[in-house]
């Protein structure tokens, strides 16, 4: 019996696959990439057709040694990293390190970690796709040239430790441009008039919509007063009643982008957390008697395609568990974006019969919530539309028309399982055409137009996708990077550019307009797709980019003056030399450092003060991070005082026990951890808000 070695990226995936396949298969993990460009130098020979100089990643020596040893003991090597460009590149590097012949059919690809998918994959190995590898190389070289050429310029001209990235800089620009729109926004006044009417048995509200045949626009109080004068003593009657059916189609199954957006909105998960949990669900979990299995398909995808087998299984499940009347005549088809890789599938459960309630006791709370979201969205996508009956009532007074609408669900369709927003069933009173209505009052309301909303992580992902910036695998790293670099801060889910971020974006706009141009970056993404499709040579793409970029670098070096940025000074003193510590921005966030560097190299963690005192020792409560990166709140006097809280404390205090309050839940309710009570703002007036 021929022995086979399968290599995947992660140990979790290796364990799951190992339990599905027979004894002739040995499954090992590469722990991600094994080769990359060196960190200490550019690693790209710009004089020799941009030849990349790959080296073994530091710390991977033992892994490679183990893989080479395992490869010598088998007859065949199969490479099974993730089914995308990055995975293809990992397979290509492994092929070279293990000296697998280039004409060997050694690449296997699977969208889900199930026995059926794996059995099919090992029977159908293929050649490593060189075009896909070249697309990844092209992206990697472009990013390296931008990062290693532009970042040192920022170090010299702005501040040490800064970085610029080909895609992250565009994301920063979107956030900075939105902030500028908000600053420059001029609110405009407008008014509405609501009519409150009385029928025989009920009341009815309707909005002023038209004057004669013209849509009405009320810009000032004077406009409103004129309408009110003309309607004084007017008679009101029902002039028209229309009823119609309206269909609401289900949303397609999740792509990476839509999963990140909906998980942020519904579960309040940051993008990074969503992808981390989705990775666990994909790679395989121990399911008790069922053994190990992946619960969802590959989670980095821009395709909404669903395999025929998965659709058939969903239709059977819907008929049995929900009702045959909810199964559409034909399986639905959802159009993917023009850039989608249609070989991929949407994110869906690998086995639709594993409903969330069946999995609840097996999964962690976070895993369960995300799996439930994916499962419900997929099942709903395979169901019939919901049908509403919409009733519109028009009321005529003088030559002014008021209108109101209400809707009732006639058939819930997919909404039996899942909906993006709850259906608003508005029941209207029974009236007939020609009925005379008594006017109770006309209620004018003043409004002002609102500035555009700041980006959240979810809306930034949506903007990046809509503008063709990045790929599914890049959204989470981009957002994490611009925050960790100190270019962007997040407050109550909104993303704000910092002063540093704005300075960097303004500098890039002036001297590197293409680097930070949305359309140019989107066009570069299209060229990467063309490389993957074999239509362009990757070195040609890099060459056309690098020539103008190199000229911009030389010009910027000569023209840009050093931009001084005043650093925040801490009240804390350096224990070694006595100077006040400075707040620095590092790769992984803020930290405190002695201004006497390099003579004095003292540093310590930066602990953000919440302005709240510890209830145990009256020390400051500061923001801390757990080992897994989760934010929590603890006493600055740790380890002497071990007080901690997962909920954000605020400088407002309970009127009964005077314990500080915290924000709790999605709605950020005021809650007393001591009394276990939820409070309202008006409850706080009896006690000082700052102790």
What does this structure look like?
This protein is an alpha+beta fold and 691 residues long. The chain folds into five domains: 125 residues, Rossmann fold (3-Layer(aba) Sandwich); 131 residues, Topoisomerase I, domain 2, CATH 1.10.460.10; 124 residues, Distorted Sandwich (Topoisomerase I, domain 3); 126 residues, Topoisomerase I, domain 4; 118 residues, no CATH class. Helices cover 33% and strands 23% of the residues. It contains 17 helices and 30 strands. Helix 3 crosses helix 5. The chain starts with a strand and ends in a 12-residue tail after the last strand. 33% of the residues are buried.
Question: How does the SSE layout of this entry go?
Answer:
Blueprint: E1 4-8, H1 11-20, E2 25-29, E3 35-36, E4 44-45, E5 51-52, E6 55-56, H2 61-72, E7 76-79, H3 85-97, H4 115-123, H5 130-157, H6 168-184, E8 189-198, E9 203-211, E10 214-215, H7 221-231, E11 236-248, H8 256-267, H9 271-283, E12 285-286, E13 292-293, H10 308-321, H11 356-359, H12 365-381, E14 386-397, E15 400-411, E16 436-448, H13 457-466, H14 475-484, E17 488-491, E18 494-497, H15 499-511, H16 518-532, H17 538-559, E19 569-573, E20 580-586, E21 589-593, E22 603-605, E23 609-613, E24 620-625, E25 631-635, E26 644-645, E27 648-653, E28 660-664, E29 669-672, E30 677-679
Parallel strand pairs: 1-2, 1-7
Antiparallel strand pairs: 3-6, 4-5, 8-9, 8-16, 9-10, 9-15, 11-14, 11-16, 12-13, 14-15, 17-18, 19-20, 20-21, 21-22, 23-24, 24-25, 25-26, 27-28, 28-29, 29-30
């Amino acid at each position: 019996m021929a022995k086979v070695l399968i290599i995947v990226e992660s140990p979790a995936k290796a364990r799951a696959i190992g339990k599905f396949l027979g004894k002739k298969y040995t499954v090992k993990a590469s722990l991600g990439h094994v080769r990359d460009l060196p960190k200490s130098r550019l690693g790209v020979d710009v004089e020799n057709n941009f030849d990349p100089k790959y080296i073994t990643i530091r710390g991977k020596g033992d892994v490679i040694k183990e893989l080479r040893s395992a490869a010598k003991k088998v007859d065949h090597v199969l490479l099974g990293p993730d089914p995308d460009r990055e995975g293809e590149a990992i397979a290509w590097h492994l092929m070279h390190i293990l000296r697998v012949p280039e004409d060997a059919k050694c690449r296997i690809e699977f969208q889900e970690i199930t026995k059926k998918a794996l059995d099919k994959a090992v029977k159908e190995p293929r050649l490593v796709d060189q075009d896909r590898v070249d697309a990844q190389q092209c992206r990697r070289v472009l990013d390296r040239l931008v990062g290693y050429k532009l970042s040192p310029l920022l170090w010299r001209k702005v501040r040490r430790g800064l970085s610029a990235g080909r895609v992250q800089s565009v994301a920063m620009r979107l956030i900075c441009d939105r902030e500028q729109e908000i600053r420059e926004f001029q609110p405009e006044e407008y008014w509405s008039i609501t009519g409150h009417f009385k029928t025989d048995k009920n009341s009815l509200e309707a909005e002023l919509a038209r004057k004669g045949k013209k849509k009405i626009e009320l810009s000032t109080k004077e406009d409103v007063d004129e309408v009110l004068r003309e309607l004084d003593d007017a008679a009101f009657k029902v002039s028209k009643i229309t009823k119609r059916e309206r269909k609401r189609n289900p949303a397609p199954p999740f792509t990476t982008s839509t999963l990140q957006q909906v998980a942020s909105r519904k579960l309040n998960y940051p993008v990074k957390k969503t992808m981390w949990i989705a990775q666990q669900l994909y790679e395989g979990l121990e399911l008790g008697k069922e053994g190990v299995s992946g619960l969802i398909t590959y989670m980095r995808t821009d395709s909404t395609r669903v395999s025929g087998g998965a659709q058939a299984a969903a239709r059977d499940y819907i008929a049995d568990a929900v009702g045959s009347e909810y199964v559409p005549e034909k399986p639905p088809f959802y159009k993917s974006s023009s850039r989608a890789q249609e070989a991929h599938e949407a994110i869906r459960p690998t086995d639709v019969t594993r409903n969330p309630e069946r999995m609840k006791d097996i999964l962690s709370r976070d895993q369960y919530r995300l799996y439930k979201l994916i499962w419900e969205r997929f099942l709903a996508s395979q169901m019939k539309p919901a049908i509403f009956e919409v009733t519109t009532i028009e009321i005529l007074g003088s030559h002014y028309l008021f209108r109101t609408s209400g809707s009732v669900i006639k058939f819930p369709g997919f909404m039996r399982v899942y909906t993006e927003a709850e259906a608003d069933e508005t029941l209207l009173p029974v009236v007939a055409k020609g009925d005379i209505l008594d006017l109770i009052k006309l209620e004018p309301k003043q409004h002002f137009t609102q500035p555009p909303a700041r980006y959240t992580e979810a809306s930034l992902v949506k903007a990046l996708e809509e503008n063709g910036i990045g790929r599914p695998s890049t959204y989470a790293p981009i957002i994490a990077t611009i925050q960790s670099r100190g270019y962007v801060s997040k407050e109550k889910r909104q993303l704000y550019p910092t002063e540093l971020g704005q300075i960097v974006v303004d500098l890039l706009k002036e001297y590197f307009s293409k680097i930070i141009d949305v359309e140019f970056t989107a066009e570069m993404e299209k060229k990467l797709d063309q490389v993957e499709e074999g239509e362009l040579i990757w070195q040609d793409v890099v060459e056309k980019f690098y020539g103008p970029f190199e000229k911009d670098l030389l010009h910027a070096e000569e023209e840009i003056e050093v931009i001084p940025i005043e650093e925040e000074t801490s009240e804390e003193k350096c224990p070694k030399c006595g100077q006040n510590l400075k707040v620095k921005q590092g790769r992984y966030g803020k930290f405190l450092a002695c201004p006497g560097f390099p003579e004095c190299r003292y540093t310590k963690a930066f602990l953000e003060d919440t302005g709240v005192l510890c209830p145990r020792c009256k020390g400051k409560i500061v923001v801390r991070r757990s080992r897994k990166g989760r934010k929590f709140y603890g006493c600055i006097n740790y380890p002497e005082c071990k007080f901690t809280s997962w909920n954000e404390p605020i400088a407002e205090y309970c009127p009964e026990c005077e314990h500080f309050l915290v924000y709790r839940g999605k709605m950020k309710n005021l809650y007393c951890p001591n009394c276990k009570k939820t409070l309202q703002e008006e409850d706080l007036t009896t006690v000082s808000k700052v102790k």
